[in-house]
Amino acid sequence: MGYKRVMSERKEPSLVLSLLPVFFLISLLAVNVIIYGGDSSYGPNQIALLLTAGFAGVLSLRLGFTWPEIEKAIVKSISSAMAAILILLMIGSLSGTWLISGIVPAMIYYGLEILNPTIFLFAACIVSAIVSVATGSSWSTAATVGIALIGIGKAMGINDGVVAGSIISGAYFGDKMSPLSDTTNLAPAMAGTDLFTHIRYMSFTTGPSIIISLIIFLIWGFTLEPNADLGNVNAVQHAITDKFNINLALFLVPAIVIFLIIKKMPALPALLIGTLLGGIFALIFQPQLISTISGITNDPLRSSYAAVMQAMFADVSIATGNGIVDELLSSGGMYGMLNTVWLILTAMIFGGVMEGTGMLRRIAREIIKFANSTGSLVAATATTCFTFNVTASDQYIAIVVPGRMFSNTFKERGLAPENLSRTLEDSGTVTSVLIPWNTCGAYQSSVLGVATFAYLPYCFFNIISPFMTILFAYLNIKIRRLDTKN
Fold it and tell me: Are the C-beta atoms of 53 and 339 separated by less than 8 Å?
């Protein structure tokens, strides 16, 4: 009886009240960017999400909700992300064993093989994409091969902005499509789908976007007359072969994982198999590294176990003497994923309060008044992601908040959650680097030494992607419904 009375006393949140936590969050994030810069995603933003969740909780108490009800909404929200968190931790282990086995170094080595001066911009985009897929990070790609490619471009006399645009286009393509990427794991977690369904469905819009970008860079490249010494590239390759036994047999492991994914094996066991195979290949192909990593020289069996185990759960760095290569050849294992796990947990706490009290639904209702079709709904979602990139200055928030905001709306319209997760990445992840005051824009500009507005016009992939996902929605191409399997 008491419960029914509480239910009847609840008030529906007004639009102004529902927006207060959002503005509160944006304000805290802005302060974090000013004070912490690019480090704001490593703790300050998580605290901002928790404080905003607390603020939203206080407001919801005034609406008639009780703390047990708010807590239940938080637990439900976190529970929905547990599969993504487990996959993320497993990916941390996989990245470690793929590093010490030589799989990731082999991807980088053979990627640099395709660098040809006559098609430099085209090749730079592809190399950046390969390295980003291998590492799961556009930031690491820019800070390593990106810097080398900028140097080569300078020697060729090519405009820095164009070179940076080709690097960023490739790096963000790889970041989006790599299962090792934190944003690629975050988007499906927010939308309510699984990692490999998300990647598979995202390929429909990402493929045409990168193909168009590559064609532009290829045509542009043929108008140039490059002439440069590729000594930096040769130095990187030499540093890799000095430490690793590089051969094509190493690609057998990723081929097996891809095969398992195609055969629709669940993500966790597929990634576990990939992790274990990586460890086995490390023992077969890189025995010289094992004792170096473990620090054990007098017991081969113990040394092998310790090295593979360390790669799975802790930091591993391979020192080559080449600064660019050393930056690439490092992995944090499961431990390295904990910051992203922390971000997901705090985001789900915030989303749980906002969702459970109807605030996100109230905001979404105002937006979808203007979204009468699937195309306009996707366009509204993409615009919201971009708006958060501009106002919140953080790509994670540009994925988290719109993801929770539109999740129920997509379901109510009969749209499978992978439509939402694809839109979040096609608009939230890739446009972050186009904003000078966004953490991604500030980082890439600083690392590459090229102003954001100087490279922005040439980031063709990042510009095309949100329009491609909107176009697919309006033309009803690869829009999966909840009651279909296509």
Answer: no
Q: Delimit the domains of the chain by residue range.
A: 84-336
Phi then psi dihedrals of residue 250, to 5 deg: -65, -25
Report the phi/psi class of residue 226: left, alpha or beta, with left for phi > 0 and alpha for psi in -120 to 50. beta
Q: Which residue has the tokens 């239910």?
A: 7
38-49 pLDDT, tens digit per residue, is 677 788 888 988
How far apart CA 450 and CA 127 sit, in angstroms, is 19
Contact between 130 and 328 under an 8 Å Cβ cutoff? The reply is: no
- pLDDT band, residue 226 (cuts 50/70/90): low
Is 369 in a helix, a strand, or coil? Answer: coil
This prediction has a pTM of 0.70
**AA letter at 227:** N
pLDDT on residue 225: 65
Distance CA 112, CA 238 (A): 11
> What type of residue is 234?
N
Give the residue among 465, 450, 389, 467 at the shortest CA–CA distance from 165: 450
Q: Is the pLDDT of residue 284 over 90?
A: yes
